[in-house]
Amino acid sequence: MAISLKLNGQTHQVEAEPGTPLLWVIRDELKLTGTKFGCGVASCGACTVHLNGEPVRSCQTYIEDLEGAEITTIEKISESRIGQAVQAAWVELDVVQCGYCQSGQIMSAVGLLSENPKPSAEEIDDYMNGNACRCATYQRIRAAILRASEIMEA
């Protein structure tokens, strides 16, 4: 099936079978590899992208549901003020260990700060709960989100 979607500000015409996850369209068809495959069942968050401004798991978001949708991936997130603050905080606090989950973590953090620019540590933990980090950098992730909030306020 042919579908038109807006990815990172550009309209793309893609051809994919119904039931194809957005993740595979992003990675295989559009060759953007920052969005990662983790579990395939929307439990780990590695594949998080923004769909019409909201974080979603691209491994369980199907192409036939996306006609005319606006999708943002990690490759474009730094163009937003919140994305810049989150990425700066990630670097400043040296959050990354292996890095595999970090694009999903960042996309979720941007989603959180878009909804709540001054979250508490508990609100961060609740919001980020669906993002798994095998290296267990959760304390650094929380600290970076708090720091990004401060950066945004400055």
Key features?
Ubiquitin-like (UB roll); 154 residues; five-stranded mixed β-sheet; 15% strand; 2Fe-2S; 2 domains; 2Fe2S_fd_BS; 2Fe-2S-bd_dom_sf; DNA polymerase, domain 1; alpha+beta
Task: Give me a quick take on this structure.
The protein is α+β, with helices and mostly antiparallel strands and about 150 residues long. It has two domains: about 1-70, Ubiquitin-like (UB roll) (Roll); about 75-154, [2Fe-2S]-binding domain (DNA polymerase, domain 1), CATH 1.10.150. It contains five helices and five strands, in the order E-E-H-E-E-E-H-H-H-H.
Strands of the biggest beta sheet: in what spatial order? 2-1-5-3-4
Major sheet description: 5 strands, mixed
In CATH, the architecture of the largest domain is Orthogonal Bundle
Helix content: 25-40%
Outline the secondary-structure elements:
Layout: E1 2-7, E2 10-15, H1 22-29, E3 48-51, E4 54-57, E5 70-72, H2 81-92, H3 102-115, H4 121-128, H5 138-153
Give an overview in words.
The protein folds into two domains: 71 residues, Ubiquitin-like (UB roll) (Roll); 77 residues, DNA polymerase, domain 1. The protein is 38% helix and 15% strand. The protein is built from five helices and five strands. A five-stranded mixed β-sheet has the order 2-1-5-3-4, with helices on both faces. A hairpin with a 2-residue loop joins strand 3 and strand 4.
